[in-house]
Amino acid sequence: MNILEVRGLRKAYGALKVTDDLDLTVREGTLHAIIGPNGAGKSTLIAQLSGQAGSDAGSVRFAGAEMMGQPMHRRVRAGMSRSFQITSILPGFTALENVAVAVQARAGHSFSFFAPVAGEAALNEAAMEALARVGIQDRAHVRAASLSHGEKRQLELAIALATRPRLLLLDEPLAGTSGQEAERLIGVMRALKGSLTLVLIEHDMDAVFALADRISVLVYGRIIATGSPAEIRGDPQVRAAYLGEETAGEEP
Amino acid sequence: MLKVEALQAAYGESRVLFDINLHVDRGEVVTLMGRNGMGKTTTVRTIFGLLRARGGWVQVDGTDLTNAAPHRIARAGLGLVPEGRQVFPTLDVRENLVAMARPGAWTMPRVLELFPRLGERLGHKGNQLSGGEQQMLAIGRALMTNPRLLVLDEATEGLAPLIRDEIWACLGALKAQGESILIIDKNVDALGRLADRHVVIEKGRTVWTGDSRALRDSPEITERFLHV
Amino acid sequence: QDDDTLTIGLLLTLSGPSAVLGEMARDGFQLAAEEIGDIGGMTTRIIVVDDELKPDVATNKARELVQRNGADIVVGPIFSNIMGAIAKPVVDSGAILISPNAGPSVFAGAECHRNIFATSYQNDQMHEVMGAYAQAQGFDNVFLLAPNYQAGKDALAGFRHSYEGGVAGEIFTQLGQLDYSAELAQIAAMQPDAVFAFMPGGMGVNLVRQYRQAGLETIPFLSAFTVDESTLPAQQDAAVSFLGGSNWAPDLDTPENKAFVEAYEAKFNQVPAVYAMQAYDAARLIDAAVREAGGVADRDALIAALEQAPFTSVRGDFSFGPNHFPIQDFYLTEVVKREDGKFATSIVEKIFEDYQDSYVGDCQMD
Amino acid sequence: MTSLFLLQLLNGVQFGILLFLIAAGLTLVFGIMDFVNLAHGVIYMVGAYLAVSFTQMTGSYGLGLLLTLPATLLIGLVLELLVFRRLYDRPHLDQVLATFGLVMIVTEGVQIIWGAAPLSVAMPEALSGSIPLIGQMRYPVFRLVVIGAGLATALGLYLIIGHTRIGMRLRAGATSRAMVSALGVDIHKLFTVIFAFGAMLAGFAGAMVAPILTVDPGMGEQVLILAFVVIVIGGIGSVRGAFAGALLVGIVDTMGRSFGPILLRLVMEPAAAGQAGRVLAPMLVYILMAAILAARPTGLFGQKT
Amino acid sequence: MSRLMTRRNAALLLFSGFALLPFVATMLGDSYLVVIATRILGFAIAALALDLILGYGGMVSFGHAAYVGIGAYSVAILSRAGITDLGAHLLAGIAGAVLFALVTGAISLRTRGIYFIMITLAFAQMAFFFFVSLSAYGGDDGVTLRARSTLLGRPLLEDDRTLYYVTLAILVALYLLAVAITRSRFGRVLTGARENPVRMQAIGFSPFRYQLTAFVISGAMASVAGVMLANQTGFVSPAFMNWHVSGELVVMVVLGGIGNLLGAVAGATIALLLEEWLGLLTEHWRLLFGLILVVIVLASRDGVSGLFRRRDRP
Ligand SMILES: Nc1ncnc2c1ncn2[C@@H]1O[C@H](COP(=O)(O)OP(=O)(O)OP(=O)(O)O)[C@@H](O)[C@H]1O
Ligand SMILES: Nc1ncnc2c1ncn2[C@@H]1O[C@H](COP(=O)(O)OP(=O)(O)OP(=O)(O)O)[C@@H](O)[C@H]1O
Ligand SMILES: [Mg+2]
Ligand SMILES: [Mg+2]
């Protein structure tokens, strides 16, 4: 079953067509990677899908329901979550609170004015779990602003996970994480596959080829190729536009 | 060119750097490696005077510049590509490039030749660029100051493989011209080919230094400190 | 409270753009106090307080004066909106309130009080003077200009009270307006017989100078509280020959006035305005009444003494009506440049003789 | 009627340019450097007072004006070194608190030095006339001079901010001070110089208006809010915006005052129209600002983020 | 945890100080102390209201005087209509404030930062000028209240001390309420929306609803301050709505330390006490006051409360 169906999506900044009549289908339970050169419109696509940015035309159907025109928070509640390429966290909150508030969003009842939230075990436990999953549980009580860049990237993913989405849109989750952390995050994504659907944007080709069930290549707002990792790797057009000979040649 | 010894630094009460030692000679490419949160960026910030050194010292060309004003350090010949891009959001691409430029071999046409994508976006504001475009701009901006020592903190984050390859090539060319480079990056393979020496830090201390061959020959180092 | 000290609180606006009025009143009062020595023959304590032209601050300052400092008499305020705020706390404590300037209609009429006196005038009267003058001149096309606040509305109403001719236009400008080009353009286009303006303080300075700069001086400029000794140092030549209505001018010919103006100018190196004069009179009124009543302990006696106005005002003829507001003469004044180079208003003619305000009928004093 | 309309339009433009002149220094310090400077108004006031004193001392308005410029520059320099430079990296509200304190100090200081009574500068003889405009209406020459000064300031600022490296560095420094210095520019010095320059612009405005407006201890506060309104309507960070905002405020205010009641009379009883006009007139500028911000939350020329 | 305890202790100390003040006044024979302290409590309520949205929601309202004014006018208007009960006055003030906050808040919340400051100022100015032209209630001259509000049908508040204690009780209650709100789930969302609204949307919140709710609560609280201040002053005029008052409230909050509800109370207390005390020292007290403000800002990053905290910055 297709959990996400995008038809005829468009967006332009002035004369610049960033998303140009784009079609995309993502099957439930798979990891669908989107790759493409810098400035191709990948992040913009995610912004459009998540509702952060408006679209000029087109349709976005998520689990059978039309999402076009819905604000971002409604789409999240419907089960679509995202992470940001340029880290977007609550800097004054601790890492734990960052995640706990995401758990709270899913739990509802946020118009409760009296009970202190800091002591709510259910929220904190779920949050801790998400932190542990990305490997920064020992940084739980550090102010997010004081985390190192890589740790922030890990937190970014933990927040997205904590909303318990059906479809997770990840914008370069591995950027800024070094060896061991990257390995761990790749492991997390692999484990998630199946229980939920992932759309992954990444410039780390090792990770993409290791994880993706399908890959779409986005260039200048258009998808020029979609296929299995092997098909994409062999596509000369993709090599020329994005991969370059060397990277494409390397076998994992 | 650059010499850092026994450097210590802290954010408020929490100490981050305890004992950092490294040096970059003229025409040398040195990498700074370590896992997330080990203090690489903090080292760079302290070298540039953006964070106060609580101990140790920083020398550029034999002059002590420990805790000097950042602009003095930059004027001594250091150019920074900071972590997280930090392009000027309200300036357009052209202004980002020329605002801080100093005369030298790197000029606007040359930067645009390296990053043709930027040429197509000259009128865009910094915050209207894609992540990768911002990264290119940050590198271009640092090159335009024509530094003798270029410091790159995760400068290839978010760049497409093709572009990344070009940057490695460009750094190679710089090195060939006798310029020095201090680089933090997670692409250890590519660095291994480019770099002369590697400095590994762990919890704010320099724990290993050696050349590429030594690194390749001692997998336990990469295993223990970098986990790759 | 000690029975043989007389505590007087001066509650005036001493900060902000209108501070000059309060300062003049303070100086006038203190000048009289120095001349007199022990006011009413009692040890005198004078406490000067700034109301900041904020009603809520003023109320508290008034309470502080009567509750903490035990003031027997409070002299103030300058501005009518402050009067409403301080009257109740002052009279509730049994103290006497003497206004050296503000004269809002409610206190002359419906809410008059036996503990409240004014040595000044009822606000409308100054405007009525100009209305009567315009009427007498046979003007039939007068342009009216005032800031859009209560006193401005009262001003134009006061003018119309004694002026029955036509009105070319009526504009309420913004409080604190800087630029009057638009209004002046309208006036220039209409060419009225005269302009009547109520523009106190800095607004008056702006208006008068811009009026002159726009070349409108051929149209007679009638005003109240717009050209007086507090604004003339800034208006200078621009205001010369502009007309105003007043209960006094520095050149009013009485011996007491001569002495007052001379002493004031010598001491403060500026020409006094009505505010100084009215406060000066207030001090002398207090002095005479306290002597008459033989102290301040017996408030009934003190009030009775005050009602007699047992002093010689620098204005000459002066008495209180049943509402404790003055019955006095009003004049048309004109701005002149004196021989010493200073600017002052000067009396042109007497418009009203022994004039009483029109609210006195509403006053039911028990 | 049409000639009056045109004249009022001119008056509106004139008032707008006057506002821009007053807001110019603030555009630089608040709009570009992103420093909330409530003290701008009082520096403008000090400029006017200095112009009064210098004019009296030298007997010439021109000399008075010329002396005011370096004097306010110096004041700006001193303030920057003593206070402002410690506040650039602080939250806006800290800047509000500190500059609020400065406002109190300077206002009181001015009263101590010059007294509370309004002062003024005599119009220089050569500029005191008026020239014929339409029909028998005339226009004061000095107003034209003020318009000229305002336009020149606008153009100068526009060029400096938008088209010089100084301007670029300044805009860059507003968002990323650390980065600017790490790339080799002495941001401290730059900010000091520009801040002092901004103070000088405020002083210039004060000296320019002294012959037409009253010089009193309230003059700074009065225009401060208006200056902020102008910049916010235009969009923070844009000289063009501030200029457009100033013109808009000037025109709407002037036209609203002169023709608002006439318009209201078309839809209401005359008495009610008069009443409504009186209620609405002082609100006009604020209604304008609220409406513009409701429609464009970052002002006319502001950055959308 | 220890931070919380000290916060609680500080609150206890401050409020019991206030509770004891009338006895001190009696001992000193200075009944005026109670008068001025009531005024301080009134402003403390308003500052507390502002800090709730400013400190926790990042909404710098430069128009909170409008709500104080709405509360004050509800006393004036109802009293004239013959309704003198304090409860009725409070309810009317709150109702008016809620309405005004809903409408203006919904529009203002489209903007952020300085723009928000200016648009809230704009709305407050509109309210100000509306009351200035309200001739029925004296325009800008205002109206004198014949008597204070009644409590249980009796003129209990005429006694300065009773008024003082009622105001204090209201302040303490509102303080506790505000503390509870900031620690609740709602409070966390509110703070999150201040930190990063886009992130909050991306985890499924619509910041607008939370911010508007907080804005309305704060407006209602400020109107309570207005009701009490009107009673304290015995006089109601548009001056309560003057932008100066909004500015002073912001100054109080920042002076006390932003996002620290007790700081707001302390800020109001310190600002008004300084004003009183310096006023006694010299006619030019403003000069000193300004100097003190500048020095405090330069010395501490967190208002007065920062002065007492151990420095943890380089
Ligand atoms: N602004 C800050 N305030 C307090 N602590 C900080 C701050 N920035 C970083 N730290 C802490 O300092 C330590 C070192 O951080 P640094 O950014 O130097 O790491 P890094 O090696 O560059 O990591 P990464 O690879 O993730 O960028 C981390 O533990 C981090 O939490
Ligand atoms: N707000 C904006 N206004 C104008 N142009 C914009 C804006 N945001 C993005 N763009 C442009 O749209 C294009 C697509 O940007 P996007 O961020 O989607 O690229 P991307 O594929 O994610 O690239 P990267 O791999 O570098 O992150 C870029 O060229 C960028 O300059
Ligand atoms: Mg992207
Ligand atoms: Mg780093």
Automatic annotation (TrEMBL), chain A:
Name of protein: ABC transporter ATP-binding protein
GO CC list: plasma membrane
Pfam families in the record: ABC_tran, BCA_ABC_TP_C
Gene Ontology molecular function: ATP binding; ATP hydrolysis activity
Organism for this UniProt entry: Paracoccus siganidrum
PROSITE patterns found in the cross-reference section: ABC_TRANSPORTER_2
InterPro entries xrefs: AAA+_ATPase, ABC_AA/LPS_Transport, ABC_transporter-like_ATP-bd, BCA_ABC_TP_C, P-loop_NTPase
Swiss-Prot/TrEMBL keywords: ATP-binding, Nucleotide-binding, Transport
Residue intervals of the ABC transporter domain: 4-245
Domain of life: Bacteria
SMART domains: AAA
Automatic annotation (TrEMBL), chain B:
Gene3D superfamilies in the record: P-loop containing nucleotide triphosphate hydrolases
ABC transporter domain segment(s): 2-228
Pfam families: ABC_tran
GO biological process per UniProt: L-amino acid transport
Taxonomic superkingdom: Bacteria
GO terms, molecular function: ATP binding; ATP hydrolysis activity; branched-chain amino acid transmembrane transporter activity
InterPro entries with a match to the protein in the record: AAA+_ATPase, ABC_transporter-like_ATP-bd, ABC_transporter-like_CS, BCAA_Transport_ATP-bd_LivF, P-loop_NTPase
Keywords associated with the record: Amino-acid transport, ATP-binding, Nucleotide-binding, Transport
Homology family: Belongs to the ABC transporter superfamily.
Name of the featured protein: ABC transporter ATP-binding protein
Organism encoding this protein: Paracoccus siganidrum
From TrEMBL, chain D:
One biological process term in Gene Ontology: amino acid transport
Gene Ontology CC terms: plasma membrane
The UniProt record lists the keyword Transport: yes
GO molecular function list: transmembrane transporter activity
Entry superkingdom: Bacteria
Subcellular location: Cell membrane
Transmembrane segments: 12-31, 38-57, 63-84, 96-121, 141-161, 190-213, 225-255, 276-295
Entry keyword NAD: no
Keywords: Amino-acid transport, Cell membrane, Membrane, Transmembrane, Transmembrane helix, Transport
Membrane topology: Multi-pass membrane protein
Family the UniProt entry places it in: Belongs to the binding-protein-dependent transport system permease family. LivHM subfamily.
Name recorded for this polypeptide: Branched-chain amino acid ABC transporter permease
Record organism: Paracoccus siganidrum
Automatic annotation (TrEMBL), chain E:
Topology of the protein relative to the lipid bilayer: Multi-pass membrane protein
Entry's localization field: Cell membrane
Segments passing through the bilayer: 35-54, 66-83, 89-107, 114-137, 162-181, 208-229, 249-274, 286-308
UniProt GO MF annotations: branched-chain amino acid transmembrane transporter activity
Alphabetical list of Pfam families matching this protein: BPD_transp_2 (PF02653)
GO cellular component: plasma membrane
Main location: membrane
CDD domains named among the record's database cross-references: TM_PBP1_LivM_like
InterPro entries the record matches: ABC_transp_permease, LivM-like
PANTHER family named among the record's database cross-references: ABC TRANSPORTER ATP-BINDING PROTEIN, HIGH-AFFINITY BRANCHED-CHAIN AMINO ACID TRANSPORT SYSTEM PERMEASE
Protein name, per record: Branched-chain amino acid ABC transporter permease
